[in-house]
Design a protein that fits this description.
The chain is built from twelve helices and 23 strands. The chain is α+β, with helices and mostly antiparallel strands. It has three domains: 2-79, Alpha-Beta Plaits; 100-281 and 483-535, FAD/NAD(P)-binding domain, CATH 3.50.50; 284-476, no CATH class. A seven-stranded mixed β-sheet has the order 14-15-18-13-21-19-20. Strand 19, helix 10 (411-416) and strand 20 (434-436) form a beta-alpha-beta unit. Helix 3 packs parallel to helix 6 (205-221), helix 3 (106-117) runs parallel beside helix 12 (512-535) and helix 5 crosses helix 12. The model has no long low-confidence stretch (mean pLDDT 96). The structure holds flavin-adenine dinucleotide (FAD). Flavin-adenine dinucleotide is lined by residues 102-108, 125-128, 153, 155-156, 159-161, 163-167, 231-232, 261-263, 266, 269, 333, 341, 343, 353, 355, 503-505, 509, 511-513, 515.
């Protein structure tokens, strides 16, 4: 197959134009074109009045080598790379020890799936409930202010990505094409096939729920065992080697390999690991607010007269501003046509995040407007970042009136440094509700100062971003893990053999796709180690 990149066609092109463009680009006549598939479709909206679709297309012809020779100096034509996923090993028939996977977020699910596909019959332990029960508990907070610390947006089947926008782009380097394996498995589990080729794929919450169930069924059909409401409360380490896990119900499971895919909110688990002497260090993360604007404002700014075009969908944005006080403020986890959600995993805390459905047709656009912070801001202890998060989240709970409402302020009032008393034209989407107040005490002074500088700067890029009635809610603290559980080149913990820190919680991923890719890498490392040990 040949790959053509940067094939640029107008937004409203007819289907037949793709074929014509391929023939033109390759200098072919139609009878030599056997087939073609779209590998990627992106949007070039730099000029909003003249938007193009940019294709990467894989083409089957009867004369690949001839074309390559003739067009050897065209940088946009090459052989299609082989992205087929191949297992690194297979489980021995007499498998002597089953690996344990902690967590069923994207990282744990993919580690478990790959291990199961190789025949290692993993045991998967998840503190939360299966996804349908978990959905009821999550809605309990959103609709009735009833919070369950073991079953919520962070904890339960599918992990933190389940109630999300399901954005699947990542900037990780992926020379082995693991991302392709992830997307292919997602499609098998029910994701729309377009995630395989649109440049910024997303799935949406509703579909994610049934996909997670389908992946569970696949893992079980391959001999994996998934246990819900099975929180790991301790890890048995003997002479620097893991020997098993202890569950909250007192049960012990013996094992020599643990995939630790607990996500960034498993604060109690981080503490246990730290107490057991597992090497952990503090890591940078970000703090800030969610901001909501009318989606129509973002669409008009990004797409002009093309706003609302079905090929374009709801517009997104990505913003960054470097402030005079040395801080950087950026937009995080932007959710076009979505809602702001209550995302705490601890009682008496308020945390914001964002999600959307596949259709992305809610009235508001939201994103985190967050400030990067580093261990210099929370020095002296590897777990100090967690304590900072807790302080901010507990204070947000107080500012919000101690009912799980989020404290909120209109952007105009935030910039003018006065409390908000009434909403304007933008109705915030956060449930159970928004309690208007003054957010200036919700974050450290340097962060407030940075955000006050950044919002007007963002307005220069998106006209209306600093509109008076846009709504800020807080606090956004779970942007990434506040710790890193460092690992060696063989993916095992720096000082604990058999422990494989993985995914976002360990500081090795920052989203659904990167967490899933990390899960695949970890599964391979675990599998190879088990086979090596058994051959000894
Ligand atoms: C509301 C929201 C929206 C998001 N939107 C997006 C998006 O659109 N795109 C994107 O790429 N990313 C998004 N993210 C981030 C993404 O969800 C995470 O990066 C990703 O889920 C991390 O995967 P993970 O498997 O490493 O950890 P997690 O998904 O956090 O999974 C960890 C799992 O471990 C379980 N667990 C924790 N401790 C224990 C224990 N002691 N014993 C047993 N089980 C335990 C938890 O219950 C959880 O199920 C969003 C996150 C949230 C909260």
């Amino acid at each position: 197959m040949l790959r053509i990149t940067e094939l640029k066609l107008p937004l409203d092109h007819p289907e037949s134009m793709i074929k014509t463009a391929i023939l033109d680009r390759l200098g072919l006549s139609a009878e030599h074109l056997i087939n073609y598939t779209i590998f990627r479709r992106g949007i070039d909206a730099r000029n909003r009045d003249s938007i193009f679709l940019i294709y990467t297309i894989d083409v089957e012809t009867d004369n690949e080598q001839g074309i390559l020779k003739r067009l050897h100096d065209d940088p946009h034509i090459s052989l299609t790379p082989d992205t087929t996923y191949r297992f690194v090993t297979r489980a021995p028939m007499d498998l002597s020890s089953r690996p344990v996977v902690i967590g069923t977020g994207p990282c744990g699910l993919f580690a478990a799936l790959i291990l199961a596909q190789m025949g290692f019959r993993p045991v998967i332990l998840e503190r939360g409930k299966e996804v349908r029960e978990r959905t009821k508990d999550t809605f309990g907070l959103w609709r009735k202010s009833v919070f369950n610390p073991e079953s919520n947006v962070q904890f339960g089947e599918g992990g933190a990505g389940t109630f999300s926008d399901g954005k699947l782009h990542t900037q990780i380097k992926d020379p082995n094409h693991y991302g392709r394996k992830v997307l292919t498995e997602f499609v098998k589990a029910g994701a729309p096939a377009e995630i395989l080729y649109v440049s910024k794929p997303h799935i949406g919450t509703f579909k994610l729920v049934s996909m997670v169930e389908q992946m569970r069924a696949t893992i079980e059909s391959l001999g994996g065992e998934i246990r819900f409401q099975s929180r790991v409360d301790d890890i048995d380490i003997d002479n620097g080697q893991v020997r098993g896990v202890k569950l909250a119900n007192g049960e012990t499971i013996r094992c020599d390999h643990i995939v630790l895919a607990v996500g960034h909110s498993a604060r109690d688990t981080f503490k246990v690991l730290y107490d057991r002497g597992v090497y952990i260090e503090a890591k940078p993360f970000s703090i800030g607010f969610r901001i909501e604007h009318p989606q129509s404002l973002i669409d008009a700014c990004r797409f002009g007269k093309n706003a609302g075009h079905p090929m374009l969908g709801a517009a997104d944005y990505k913003l960054v501003h470097h402030c005079r006080n040395g801080r950087s403020v950026y937009s995080f986890c932007m959710c076009p046509g979505g809602t702001v959600v209550a995302a705490t995993s601890e009682t008496g805390h308020v945390v914001t995040n964002g999600m959307s459905q596949y259709s992305r047709n809610e009235r508001n656009a939201n994103s985190g407007i967050v400030v990067g912070i580093t261990p210099d801001d929370y020095p002296d202890h590897p777990l100090a970042g967690i304590e900072l998060q807790r302080r901010l989240e507990a204070h947000a709970f107080e500012l919000g009136g101690k009912t799980y409402e989020a404290p909120g302020q209109l952007v105009g009032d935030f910039l003018a440094q006065r409390p908000s008393v009434a909403l304007g034209s933008v109705q915030p989407s956060y449930t159970p509700g928004v309690h208007l107040c003054d957010l200036s005490s919700a974050l450290p002074d340097y962060a407030i100062e940075a955000i006050r500088e950044a919002i007007p700067a963002f307005d220069k890029k998106i006209k209306g971003f600093a509109m008076h009635d846009a709504v800020l809610t807080g606090v956004e603290t779970r942007t990434s893990s506040p710790v890193r559980i460092k690992r060696n080149a063989d993916y095992q913990s720096l000082n604990t053999k058999g422990l494989y820190p993985a995914g976002e919680g360990a500081g090795y991923a920052g989203g659904i796709l990167s967490a899933a890719v990390d899960g695949i890498k970890i599964a391979e490392a675990v599998a190879l180690d088990i086979v090596r040990n058994q051959e000894k």
